[in-house]
Known about the structure:
This protein is α+β, with helices and mostly antiparallel strands. It has two domains: 47 residues, no CATH class; 32 residues, no CATH class. It has three helices and two strands. A two-stranded antiparallel ribbon has the order 1-2. Helix 2 crosses helix 3. The radius of gyration is 17 Å and the shape is globular. GO terms for molecular function: ATP binding; ATP hydrolysis activity.
Amino acid sequence: MTLNDVTISYGNKKVYENFSITFKDLSITAILGASGCGKTTLLNEIASRNSLHQISFIFQEPRLIPWETIEKNIMFALKRQDTLDSVLFGAGRFA
Length: 95
């Protein structure tokens, strides 16, 4: 997957200007940087252009709804019960 000459702004603040990057197929890439430098903005841009690639995000800090169960957190992210069953089965929940 390749991004070419990406420019992203929020109001007058440019986060990326003429930014280009290529990710190798079937690879794992870490996006590292200080808080507020644009890591999540970059991931959102990649996801918005994703049509043929499988992309997953893993954030460093917890991203769960603390008052909900693990199952409900997964359901919230997936929004489909049949997908939830296959994810839980794959994780050994029903094995």
